[in-house]
Each structure stands twice: as structure tokens, then as C-alpha cells.
Amino acid sequence: MDSVDYSSDAFFHGPILSCIDLKRPTTPSVIVIGGGISGLAAARMLHEANFRVMVLESRDRIGGRIHTDYSFGFPVDMGAAWLHGVCDENPVAPIIRCLGLTLYRTSGDDSVLYDHDLESYMLFDKNGVQVPQNVVTAVEEIFKKILKETDKVRKEHTDDMSVLQAISIVLNNHPDLRLEGLANEVLQWYICRMEAWFAADADMISLRSWDQEHVLSGGHGLMVQGYDPVIKALARNVDIRLNHRVKRIFNGSNKVLVTIENGQNFVADAAIITVPVGVLKANLIEFEPNLPEWKASAIEDLGVGHENKVAMLFTDVFWPNVELLGVVAPSSYDCGYFLNLHKATGQPVLVYMAAGRFAYDLEKLSDQSAKDFAMLQLKKMFPDATEPVIFSNSWSHCSGKKSMKLMACLFDLIAGPISLFSLGYRSQLSGLLHLRHSREARGPVREAPSTCREPLLWGRSCEFG
Ligand SMILES: Cc1cc2nc3c(=O)[nH]c(=O)nc-3n(C[C@H](O)[C@H](O)[C@H](O)COP(=O)(O)OP(=O)(O)OC[C@H]3O[C@@H](n4cnc5c(N)ncnc54)[C@H](O)[C@@H]3O)c2cc1C
């Protein structure tokens, strides 16, 4: 791969191109744009297949929306933390297994709460009174019925609508499913959990596609040691250029020219673009010629949502030994929940999780104010809660935005010199909601499956160890 300092216009005209062509080595070269897990996975595969690969990453670190923070003295994932689908089909699983990493199982398949099930949780009202478990399970049944009815609404309407609209149609048609008081607050908490899965408010989630996602089986496992070792393993021996923000991609007849912010050009046989959909939607990268219509319209159609975390380290554990601590409220926006990392990792850490518009609003606060807000929520449940000794938030570390449909995977690596590659391992727009509640045994974990999926190159990942 060649790095040249000429301006792109000069480069693609006149003698410079032929000069580079003369030097052209036989091994094909690829520039991967973006050093998140998609870009690193693509680069790893190409590196293993003897391509010459270079990753151009705009930030001063790799990982993108995966970032393991060590400021507490141990790993805490401020971006992705779960493996969704602990099974052979999941290409991340063999890496986790070969690195000997531990997964803490938080739910089996088919939970109405996605990556949690209702076995290890406590919900509280705003006065700190615990919601009786029988109310929570009764509302769960009603929530499932409501969702089932929304499927009928979908069939009756040709135009798409939001899940929230569909729920309101169902409640109009079935007054028996309407809830009041505490039960309604618990229903709002279920909706809040649904919004967390999609990183979008219910009025933004598509009725047509929300349950069309194929979520891998095997349940959901929390990465006890964090995702950092996976990122490092994928990145090993790959040529990665940090602080290289790509501004322009020129697709020549047999070369791709990539220009970064400072005007420096890089040339290769092909480019793989793994930047977040939000970056593409905002047209932060100029394509020449323009992307084909089908790619441009796919980018336009995909949504992007927000998810954020505030992690807090305490001196002591003053909360109960359950995985999830939730606050119910009259609207899903005002509901909240904390992940108790002590259960999975033994460390006295609570992670306040926020999604959708609420996450967006939280992100606007200073770090201190965001922590204070999380503490207010915590004190609703535990009035004597002590202040954390240290805290951390996701938006200082890791863009809080989630692409809603990463698996939509505009992936034509074979077909053209410029490929959009998204191997984000969880789709947000069309999340899964099965209507059978799992009661599988939980606990410190299950291992990632023992056979590597073939023929994925990174499946041969025992070298990662
Ligand atoms: C708070 C949070 C929690 C999450 N939890 C989970 C979870 O538990 N499990 C799960 O499966 N998923 C989770 N996700 C989603 C998951 O993190 C993402 O799907 C995944 O990390 C996306 O990887 P990616 O490589 O496609 O994109 P990214 O990680 O966003 O990588 C894209 C990279 O491109 C770089 N870039 C952007 N613009 C340019 C440019 N112009 N030039 C060069 N580089 C550029 C960015 O800096 C970034 O490093 C979570 C996301 C968030 C935000």
C-alpha cells in the first residue's frame, strides 16, 4: 500500500498514477476505514489471508464502541459488554473461548427482557418501596399479551408505524389490558427495557421490523474480564494508523484513493468502510463517485439510537445481591435500572444504563451532573446509599450511539472495490422478542462453545491466546 502526499486531484491525473502502477506489488492491498470490532475483524481476516492491510482510525484508540475502562483498577466495559448468542454461530465466541475469557450468563434465549431474565432483579417505586414480585410477573404476562396483539395491528395496517402507536391501538381495542397505578409503572419499566435493547424510544421503533431480527441462540453472556482482550487479539500485528480521520474516498478504475483530514492520501486496491452508520448518514465522508443509489438509500433508511452508561465504584456493597435494580415510573423515560456488576465480577460496581432520548439528554450533562443524576435514582431505592469513590461514563470514552441495524450489513467485499462492512454483532432495529420466558439455570457462566466455526479465518483463533 502506498502513502502519498499529493493532492487527490494531482494524484489521479498525469504521470503519478502510472509511476505508482509500475511499483505495484502483486499482493492485493486493502485499506480498512474504522478500527472498531468490524474493521479489526475485517483487517484480521485479510491479514491472515496475506492481503496487505492498513486500518485508518480517526480516534487515538482502537475499539470504537467497545471500550474497556481500567480506571477503577479492573476492567469495566463502557460500550459493548455482552455476547448476545453464546453459540458457535457467533463469530466472536471462538475468540472468547480461545482467549479463556469468562462469560457470566444473564439470561437464556427468549426472555421478554432480552439480555436479562426475571430471576435476579428487584424493582422499586419512586418512594423506595419494593414492587412485589407477583405484580412484576403479572405485568410481564400482560406485556406479552399486548405485544402479541401488536402483531395483529401489524397485519391489519399496510403502512409501518411505531411500536408505541401499535401499543396504544391495542389498549384502545382491549381495555382489559389497560393498567393503572403501580402496575402501569411496571409496564412502563418493561417498555423501558425494550427501548434499551433498541437504543431508541418506543415511538421510534418500527412495528414492521422490530421482531424480525435473527438473534443467535445460546443466551446472553456478560464479559467478566471485558472486551478489551478480544479487541487486542484482533488487532495484533495489523498495521493500524490512529488519529487518521478519513474525509474522502475516490474510487478510481483500479485503485481506491483515501484522503484523511490533513490531506494525506493512501492508495490501495480496495477499501472497506466500517465507520458507524451515523457517520455515513451525516455525510462526513465524501465519496467520489457517489455511492450507488441502493447503498445510499439503505444508509438513509437505517436509524441510529443512543445508549449510555454511568459506572460507579463504591467502597462497600449496600445493595441486594441481584443482577438488576430497577426504578419504575409513570413513563418509560423516567424509569431506570442499574446493572449490579458485583454479581458477575465480585467488584462493588453499579452501572446505570440509559437509552434512547434519555441517553441523549444524559449525554449533554457534565460528568459530575450525570453521576449526580444516577445517584438520585439510586437513592430512590437506597436512601442511605454512599457516594461512589470514582465514576466513569460511556460518552467520555466511547461514542454512545448505536447503529440500529448493524447486521443490515452492507457487505459486498467480493463485489466491488469499495465495500461497506458491518459486522456489528447485534442488530438494534429489529431486535428479538420471543414470547416464552426462559427459566434456565443461571450463574457463573457457561463457556463459549468448544468448536470453532469454519471457514472464518478468525475461527482459527487459538493463536490469539
Ligand atoms: C453503550 C453501548 C453498549 C453496547 N452494548 C452492547 C453489548 O452489550 N453487546 C453488543 O453486542 N453490542 C453492544 N453495543 C453495540 C456494539 O458496541 C456495536 O455494535 C459495535 O461495537 C460496533 O462496532 P463497529 O466496528 O461496527 O463500529 P464502531 O465500534 O463504532 O467502530 C467504528 C470506528 O470507526 C471510526 N471512525 C468513524 N469515522 C471515521 C473516519 N471518518 N475515519 C476513520 N475512522 C472513523 C470510529 O472512531 C470507530 O473506532 C453497545 C453499544 C453502546 C454504545
TrEMBL record:
Pathway: Amine and polyamine degradation; spermine degradation. Pfam families: Amino_oxidase. GO terms for molecular function: polyamine oxidase activity. GO terms for biological process: polyamine catabolic process. Coiled coil: none annotated. Gene3D superfamilies: 3.90.660.10, FAD/NAD(P)-binding domain. FAD binds at S38, V246. Keywords: Oxidoreductase. Substrate binds at Y352. One of its GO terms (cellular component) is peroxisome. InterPro entries: Amino_oxidase (IPR002937), FAD/NAD-bd_sf (IPR036188), Flavin_amine_oxidase (IPR001613), Flavin_monoamine_oxidase (IPR050281). Residues 37-393 form the Amine oxidase domain. It comes from the Eukaryota. Its cofactor is FAD. Belongs to the flavin monoamine oxidase family. This is Amine oxidase domain-containing protein. It comes from Trapa natans.
